[in-house]
Specification:
Layout (H helix, E strand, L loop, with lengths): L2 H8 L13 H11 L18 H11 L1 H22 L4 H9 L8 H34 L6 H11 L7 H13 L15 H12 L1 H5 L15 H8 L11 H6 L11 H13 L5 H21 L11 H6 L3 H9 L9 H21 L7 H30 L2
Helix pairs in contact: 3-7, 3-13, 4-6, 4-13, 6-7, 6-8, 7-9, 8-9, 9-18, 13-16, 14-17, 17-18
Length: 399
């Protein structure tokens, strides 16, 4: 008996009247992971398209693959470089020693394996804890488990430092899923990005372990600042002294969260999302224009006391989480503006805010996470004014 026949045989037990009907959400989740949903519209009007929720989420996950692969490599690279001075310990070191691979940062395999040993536990905990809450809410509400969690779980793991304790990972994804999404009705009804909500919760609840100089490389006794931290404290001229060049930041061989250091990896994902039309280009263009315009204005204004005024737009593009946030967070269709004009405004607002936070507010050298959440909050209001403006314009034209 084939797998399809097994699903067809047990399916009646999960429908209304069956002895397992309250667990239909779990059955539907497992079946959807294996097969494309077979449900079709039964009443007019019909909307025909090969793009369904499963395909959209699958495409986004595929787009993250370059960031995942480079994130594994860079996490291992930074860790192995630090181990040369501070030594290695723990179960990860025991596994690597047992396999005889070693901690040579010039060995790509050693870097990939070491990075995997940090990322994989974070991802497993995220899937397990977040998935439990997704299933609980789906069973209680009697609706299907949405594929949106696959994207949220992947993005959440990529915007965390490799040193994040697993219990904090569990807390963060719980907050993101429950408070950021499920309390508003689930996938498609949330006005905030769930992955960013979980990350923001950890950022404010445990700031020393999320934003300190010792969190980016998970080696005891090692400290090192990110490019943004160096720029904010010592100025742009100090970046080469810390071994950070623009090309290093563009490629991604610098300290930072697991999956958001490589601009080129994020741009590969963006190209895929634009070609498949999953991402709207207006959101991307608006965010770039807002960032470039305001950063250039601050360069012209200048400041004798704030070195961040001198950071040009092409550095803002490659440092911190700007590129990753631009590709995977700004373009997220649910929490972004839905009108074409609104998308330009929404993107420009985020681009403006990320530079504002990075440069003007000394407490938050990163900025992209808070800028996107700020944009999420204003997206419905932006769409409202755009729609009202269109109504007034048409009423005036037809008067």
């Amino acid at each position: 008996m084939g797998l399809r026949q097994v699903f067809d045989r047990i399916e009646p037990h999960f429908h209304k009247g069956g002895k397992l009907q309250k667990y239909y959400s779990i059955y539907e989740m497992v079946e959807s992971l294996v097969y494309t949903p077979k449900t079709v519209t039964t009443v007019a009007p019909h909307a025909r398209s090969y793009i369904d929720m499963k395909r959209i989420m699958t495409y986004v996950v595929i787009a993250t693959i370059p960031c995942i692969l480079f994130g594994l490599y860079n996490t291992g690279l930074q860790t192995n470089l630090a181990i040369a001075d501070h030594g290695a310990s723990g179960w990860r070191a025991a596994i690597i020693d047992g396999l005889g691979i070693g901690f040579n940062p010039a060995n790509p395999l050693a870097n990939m394996l070491h990075g995997l040993l940090y990322w994989l536990p974070i991802y497993i905990v995220t899937l397990a804890v977040g998935g439990i809450f997704e299933v609980i809410f789906a069973v209680v509400r009697g609706h299907e488990v949405n594929e949106g969690f696959l994207v949220s779980s992947m993005l959440f793991t990529l915007i965390l430092p490799a040193s994040t304790p697993l219990w904090q990972v569990a807390l963060g994804i719980t907050f993101g899923v429950v408070i950021g999404k499920e309390v508003f009705g689930g996938t498609g009804k949330n006005f905030l990005n769930p992955a960013l909500v979980g990350r923001a919760f950890l950022y404010f609840a445990y700031p020393a372990q999320m934003s300190g100089d010792s969190v980016w490389v998970p080696v005891d006794g090692y400290t090192g600042a990110t490019a943004l931290a160096v720029g904010a404290s010592e100025g742009m001229a100090a970046l080469p002294q810390h071994g950070i060049t623009w090309m290093d930041a563009f490629i991604g061989t610098i300290q930072g969260c697991i999956g958001e250091t490589s601009t080129i990896a994020a741009l590969i994902g963006l190209a895929f999302l634009l070609i498949t039309k999953i991402a709207n280009w207006r959101l991307v263009a608006g965010c770039l224009l807002g960032m470039i315009g305001f950063a250039s204005l601050l360069n012209v204004i200048g400041s004798d006391s704030n070195p961040m005024f001198a950071m040009p737009w092409y550095w803002h593009l490659v440092v911190g989480g700007y590129a990753f946030g631009l590709v995977f967070m700004v373009t997220e269709p649910v929490s972004a503006s839905h009108t074409n004009t609104g998308r330009w405004i929404y993107g420009a607002l985020i681009g403006f805010m990320v530079v504002m936070i990075r440069v003007i507010n000394p407490a938050f050298p990163e900025g992209m996470m808070l800028a996107i959440l700020f944009g999420n909050v204003f997206a419905p209001l932006i769409d409202y004014f755009v729609v009202q403006a269109n109504i007034k314009r048409r009423a005036k034209r037809n008067a």
